[in-house]
């Protein structure tokens, strides 16, 4: 039973990589993409409900999320053709995220990405992006996601810098 959530997270890595070979925004792309999103929800839910949460599982989930976001950026970049300021903004968000991981590695000797509310909201926004593309102006959608992603990245960095112990499930700097 303990391996099921980790298997689901690992499957998200495989499915995300398969997205590279599908026509972006096609029915097959959306079907597999929604499976990836569902797997992101269900792996943690199963782990918590069965008492099988683990440090390795949390890291695997974070790695699967990063791979899925990386694939999404690579696949959708030619379609959305973002303005240079959006590209710079995304790079800056990435630098903040890498810095946060670096702080965790230095302080706690482990790879760590936190499961904050901000990160969850950012994840939902990024997940919704290709689904909302036909309905919301692309630039407006990118700006909204970048604002939320910036706030959550800065919050995570603040938590990593100010915490004396690793708190993977710290919800927010505003919640004890």
Provide keyphrases for this structure.
176 residues; mainly alpha; 6 helices
Strand tally is 0
Poorly predicted ranges: none
Beta percentage is under 5%
* Mean pLDDT across all amino acids: 93
Mind sketching the topology for me?
Elements: H1 3-19, H2 27-50, H3 55-80, H4 84-108, H5 117-132, H6 138-162
Helix pairs in contact: 1-2, 1-3, 2-3, 4-6, 5-6
Description:
The protein has six helices and no strands. It has 176 residues and is an all-alpha fold.
Provide a short characterization of the protein structure.
This protein is an all-alpha fold. Helix content is 76%, strand content 0%.
